[in-house]
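User: what does the whole thing look like in 3D?
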Amino acid sequence: MKNKEIMIKIVAYVVIIIFSLISFIPFITGLITAFKPETIQIHSPPIWIFEPTLSNYERILFTKGNLYNLMNSFIVTFFNIIISLVVGIPAAYALARFNLKGSGALLSWIISLRMIPPVVVAIPFFSLAQSFNLYDSYIGLTLSYMCFSIPMVIWIMRGFCVEIPKELEESAMMDGCSRLYAIYKIVLPLMIPGIVATTLLVVMVIWNEYLIALILTGREAQTLPVSTARYITRVRIEWGSLFAANSLIVIPILILAISIQKHLVRGLTFGTIK
Amino acid sequence: MEVRLKNISKVYNSNIFAVKNISNLFESKKFTVLLGPSGCGKTTVLRLIAGLEKITEGYLYLGDKMANDIPPKKRNIAMAFQRFTMYPGMNVYQNIAFPLEIKRIEKDKIKEKIDKLSKILKINDLLNRIPDQVSGGEAQRIALARMLVREPNICLMDEPLSSLDAKLRIELRTEIKNIHLNNPRTTIFVTHDQEEAMSLGEQIVVMDKGEIIQQGVPDEIFNNPKNVFVGTFLGLPTMNIIKCNYDNNLNVFNTNENSFLLKCSTDVNKKYIKYIGIRPENIKLNKNKLDKYYIGCKILVIENLGNKYLYTVEALNQNIKVMCKDNNNIDIGQKCFFKFDNKSIYCFDNKEENLGNGN
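Assistant: Here's the predicted 3D structure for the full assembly of 633 residues, as structure tokens:
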């Protein structure tokens, strides 16, 4: 029995390691390439021992202007997540708590928004942005993203709100709190793991978004994924710059995920541990 | 503070009546139990009094103030819920202190109150624990402490003991009663457990299908049920109900196929009797037919309850429960005879209303 358990564990670890390697190798290779001098970037066979250089980063950040794109990505993602949470959490709470007329239909409509492929709305968004003079602006891009991120926040957060016992806030209301204060004092602290998990999921979607950003932005509001794609041209691919920019996209998300990891695990498993 | 309901209705989704036009007075400093089966509207009544639900129609008075539109936090009502509602992220002490902190009461006074109360409720060892570290029974004691610490005008309890095991339930029941006797305040306690209602209530209000069926002191409800529903709801095992008609010529009661003799008091008009109710403990069982009022039966099941025996017998085309102190050497399958104690017969009319005791 014990041997069998050990065997199962070994097999499980082997499978996990293989899959981790498969998903990590492209990323690691890319990251290594980002530190390679231009001459050996596409050498065959690959050269693994070399003197690392920051020249690729220096070039993309200061010569090619990717620092500005990084800032754009930050601005758009930041405002988008803040507004989405501020609008989405109260909506999720209301849909979870109150027996509103037509709330079922409203929920279906909200989830159906998530099902629309971005490419369907990209052109209408473009013409809307043009006519409202919002083309290539933070506001235009943020507004467009909110069409996706708010439904996402509502849908995920509603699940968390349903899990929180109604009696807790009712109890607080009986103890002398107003509904708003009860939510602030009792419900909100319980929602934090959910909010953290939702934030990460939404940030990942918005931060990596390519298509709408490509269509709605020109020079001014261009985000990092769009500007990164510029390194693939008809003439050649600038591998060094491409991978350096690539790592710039990945690393902030990685840092965010690691820094909120403690809450994240609780958030993603919320409801299953009760 | 007394609580008065005047023609109150609560309607959900514009056609589902949770509570139908009920009026009642919950007397000041009395312990009233709202008793009824699940879904009868008793919790809704409690939530209407608490202000957690809006009243669709009618008026609610707390003392002499009309309270329909007073928000919950201003009603000075404390409530204990069925599920343990300990605030997460706070330890036991902070949980109990919460209602006082909202009122901005000084820290020293809070501590003094909690120390006193926690001794009474035997939770003084738990004050530093977090919600995860307390058991169900302890959590409910803590909920009681949080309820009592603010000295509310009215206490509402929504089946607070229903999720505890039987032993703990009886223990806590005694304590709730004790606390109330030492410091009486208007208390409304919701339960579907008739034993809990009988033991705790100074007044019992029986509800069914959103309406109040009967109210009174426990003895009155038990001994003089208004109808078949109340009669069968109180008492365990439940009252036997025998559907029958009175035959004037032969002076016997007829069921579908059988007939039997019954002594009935003269002030009940026998021709109106459609149901006869009798509690299992008021039936005598014997091997022999001692007089003409004994009815033949066959023993189906014998349950030994320790200090008494519960028999299920087949007679008059139905199963009848009989409770006896000793087993009289009776075995399963045996033919026996039973007789109703004529002082404890309940007679109900065709609307299942009580015509009066048959004694």
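In plain terms: Residues 79 and 156 of chain B are 5 Å apart (CA to CA). The first helix of chain B runs from residue 42 to 50.
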